[in-house]
Amino acid sequence: MPTTSRHSDWRVSPVFLGIFAVMAVTGWAVWTDYAASAGLAVFLFVTSAWIVSLCLHEYAHAATAHHSGDLSIGTKGYLSLNPLAYTHAMLSIVLPVLFVILGGIGLPGGAVFVERGSIRGRWKHSLISAAGPLTNVLFALVCTAPFWLDALDGVPLIFQYALGFLALLQVSAAILNFLPVPGLDGYGVIEPWLSYRIRRQVEPLAPFGLLLVFALLFIPALNAVFFDAVDAVLRVLGVDEIMSACGFDYYRFWEGENEHCLPYTLGA
Q1: Where are the transmembrane segments (predicted)?
Q2: Catalytic residue from among 58, 115, 203, 255
Q3: Which of 171, 210, 219, 264 has the fewest CB within 10 Å, making it most exposed?
Q4: Cα(112)–Cα(56) distance, rounded to whole angstroms?
Q5: Nearest C-alpha neighbor of 230 from the set 179, 155, 188
Q6: Residue 77's Cα: distance from chain center in Å?
Q7: What is the pLDDT averaged over residues 248-255?
Q8: 58: annotated active-site residue
Q9: Terminal-to-terminal C-alpha distance of the chain
Q10: What is the pLDDT of residues 90-128, one digit of tens each?
Q11: Would you call 235 helix, strand, or coil by DSSP?
């Protein structure tokens, strides 16, 4: 059995580089107001940035598992940042993007299959599960840095909108992922500390955990509690509710501008 991964396992996928290039170009278009359609530019920028964050989320799981002892991670392509390597493309990319388009919510993406038997120590298992959502937390901090650093001078307002909505996606993804529900990363954090009996009883529920969470979010009262929590975190990070809402309105460019954003856009 090899004790180290191959150098090629760590090469960045051209697919990821292409998505990152789209994020950079469309981000520049939003910043400079170069695009003919500001809404389309915001849509492409936020969508590509969201996919980049999905890749980083899964890469964090994979890299942590690799350093914890699972040397099979590299051969599965998880260290290449290729979004197509993280389970099925529909579950890893299409479904999360679809939920962003339809509901403005950060759905946890693909999955990294870890050979847990290769890893010793409960703390390592917990850290592997926590690494993904912690990446969303870090991404949210980066997106909101201009807000909580009070460094918005010179930042175009529409770019602030885009950052606000992107931050909302990261915060919602982090909160959902940290829920201690079977099938989500939050349960993976506490699972190593549970008794064998409890783990066996809960195991059959894992494939349905995410579906259960989203079914509960369709209940208006729970949906309000969830988004109130997201908004509360965003306010701590300096992003007000109007900023992220206007970002979502620009993102859904095919619906046209929402009137509640017009006075805000004009600085009134």
Answers
A1: 12-31, 38-60, 89-114, 126-149, 161-184, 205-227
A2: 58
A3: 219
A4: 12
A5: 179
A6: 20
A7: 88
A8: yes
A9: 66
A10: 666 677 777 787 777 887 666 788 888 889 999 999 999
A11: helix
